[in-house]
Amino acid sequence: MLNESGLQKIEQINAAMNSYLEQNIFTEYRDSYVYVERELLDGSIRRGVVGVIDLEEYDYREGTASRIRATEETVKERIPARKTIRENAALELSHVILLCDDEKKTLIEPLTHSKHSMKKLYGFELMLGGGKIDGWLMNGEHARAFNTRMNSYIKRKAKELSLTFAVGDGNHSLAAAKACYLDNPSELSRYAMVELENIHDDALKFEPIHRIVKGVNPEEFIAEIQNQICVKGWTSSKNSWALNYYSHGKKGIIFIDKSKGASALIVLQKYLDERGCDIDYIHDTESLRKLADESGCVGFEMPAFDENAKRDFFSIISQSGVLPRKTFSMGHAQEKRYYLEARRIK
Fold this sequence. Notes:
- By secondary structure, the protein is α+β, with helices and mostly antiparallel strands.
- The protein has helices at residues 4-22, 79-87, 111-114, 140-160, 171-183, 218-229, 264-274, 285-292, 307-320, and strands at 33-39, 45-54, 58-59, 68-70, 91-92, 97-100, 119-125, 132-138, 165-169, 191-198, 206-208, 210-214, 240-247, 250-257, 278-282, 298-301, 328-330, 343-344.
- Helix 2 packs across helix 5 (171-183).
- The model has no long low-confidence stretch (mean pLDDT 92).
């Protein structure tokens, strides 16, 4: 909920946008994309294409069959404030990252070789340890070639899965954009700006988010989990996923039954939610272990998001719907997408 001060700031931002448009500060590129290369602190290069999606093809609701979907559960209470921010804004500056499942690397990766014949739009160091970013204008023949590859990708994915694109970051902002479009449909509001990235890009890192359960008797709680969602015999098999847990300075392993769901996290989170557990979400494994030492706590270490997980990612969402909240984080905070390009929405 936005207070009066927040609403005043939104009015000031909207006024500034209108002023910039009146002063012709922006350079507008029609019928174009922007090809982006982001150099991260480890030296790896993450590639993306900035463009728009049709919001009529996007749906965040559970059980949807839309071609563009959320990856994680959307908290509906977060949408109204974001909608208020967007609904009277003349421009959008997007941090949304949209994922494609292009294991053959035929869609975005070829742009690495053709960028030298494109117009360089920008190239500079980012603030706060964000690395470096470069952007090239992709129009004319380059845009047409990309559209051809995009159509081939869409046709290929349509034969494999019900899901074509998945929202990796910024889903609540995209949900707000959809709400604004439904309230006031127009040719401009129907589309939203995103950066498309390939989930198989080596520089695109997914960090697991671990679970701490508080206020339980650890021994009894683990015994209940083993009885409810684990394979009988409590031993490793091809029919189970191994999951580490920590409590009172000790480490243990549970073997979650694969017949219970599409992934260990989905099965565990469903059980914790149904039981009404008090859960904290932790990014760092060392922090998880320390917190699990506290009285009445059990920490569950979520599996690393490796190449196998990337390969199965789209099929799991297509199969099971959106993933539980706090499933993963796309890289560290300084590796998120910065607000750079702007697009007119009114």
